[in-house]
Amino acid sequence: MVVLNNLEEILVKLEEEELNSDDGSVNPETYCQMLAIYLYQNELCLAKFLWQRIPANVKMACSDLRKIWSVGKKMWTRDWEEVHIALNVEWNANVREIMQALKGKVQERVLKLVGDAYASLDLVTLSKMIGMSLDKTKEVAEQRGWNLVGNTVKPTKAVPKSNASTTETIAEEQLHKLTQFVSFLEN
Fold it and tell me: Which ranges of the sequence are coiled-coil (predicted)?
């Protein structure tokens, strides 16, 4: 079993295992875990490079590896509905925990994107994008403080919390640096 709070350490060990192997390849389970962790970390480029260096015979022999890469391809194209469809399969024990956590992370990422980018969105579309039922989608929208008008969700943008004193301090520091720079130029 993989422990999510140790993913970085696990990844380092897996990468070392790959680097230290005699022929540059490792067992399919190692590749599966590496690929799943890269996706979990949203390191799509690293996932793609890993996929490219995995030997073709390993790709063909390991269905879990192909299923994980299917998720990666959908993430790459940002086809969120298809990402959730690809994630809703039975995963092998060595990647199950990571892939389940990835599903939650993708849902949260999509909800943040929707909140930042949309003034309104059809409830069915949002439901497909986050891979949840309509009822669960309504519940999530309400928890976020989004308005529901009929079958339309109206996200409210999160207002960044700014500390006025911190902002003033930064502005004063910048003004001081600018003053010093101008004084230097005048000399």
Answer: none
